[in-house]
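Data deposition worksheet. Section B asks for the primary sequence of the deposited chain exactly as it was used as input, without tags or linkers unless they were present during the calculation. Section C holds the resulting structure in token form. Section D is free text for depositor observations; keep each observation to a single sentence. Incomplete worksheets are returned to the depositor.
Section A, Depositor: J.P.
Section B:
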Amino acid sequence: METMTLDDLMRILVECAGSEEGVLSGEDVFDRSFEDLGYDSLALMESAARIKQEFGVSVPDDDITEVETPRSLLDLVNGAITATATAAATVA
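Section C:
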């Protein structure tokens, strides 16, 4: 299973909620808050649904409202991807 990159996350965010002019172009966004980037909890919840479609992992609503930065969301998603892959390898 493929891990999610920052480019993947930013593409999903833009597809789900758009972006403010120039906010995402060439800036280091890993540790900027989603609020500073212009994304609210609704945008993150919609992005979580897209993440489930594309990467096959669920991000619970409680967790998605707790993450504050792209780095924390990537850690959460990629941790779930790793756990799912490990569980599948253990069963096989």
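Section D:
The domain at 6-17+28-91 is CATH 1.10.1200.10 (Non-ribosomal Peptide Synthetase Peptidyl Carrier Protein; Chain A).
The chain has one domain: 6-17+28-91.
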